[in-house]
């Protein structure tokens, strides 16, 4: 697996500098892209309210989390 550089946030958590962008993603496709990305090692998904795709992104993340592919920590 490739090692991706990270940056440390003010909170102390780290975030990978390489992520999947979801801006201008087509409805019905963005969820598939998010699932594929997570299953292939991405841990940074860029999304914003203005993109208006947060429901589909969230549903895709929920499916991946339910499959126990990645551990969810809060």
UniProtKB/TrEMBL annotation:
Keyword annotations: NADP, Oxidoreductase
Coiled-coil residue windows: none
InterPro entries assigned: AKR, Aldo/ket_reductase_CS, NAD(P)_OxRdtase_dom_sf, NADP_OxRdtase_dom
Signal peptide start-end: none
SUPFAM superfamilies according to UniProt: NAD(P)-linked oxidoreductase (SSF51430)
GO-annotated molecular function: oxidoreductase activity, acting on the CH-OH group of donors, NAD or NADP as acceptor
Superkingdom: Eukaryota
Residue ranges occupied by any NADP-dependent oxidoreductase domain in the UniProt entry: 18-68
PROSITE patterns linked to this entry: ALDOKETO_REDUCTASE_1 (PS00798)
Repeat as UniProt keyword: no
One Pfam family in the UniProt entry: Aldo_ket_red
PANTHER family: 2,5-DIKETO-D-GLUCONIC ACID REDUCTASE, NADP-DEPENDENT OXIDOREDUCTASE DOMAIN-CONTAINING PROTEIN
Family under the similarity heading: Belongs to the aldo/keto reductase family.
Name of the protein this chain belongs to: NADP-dependent oxidoreductase domain-containing protein
Gene source species: Parascaris equorum
Native organism taxonomy: Eukaryota, Metazoa, Ecdysozoa, Nematoda, Chromadorea
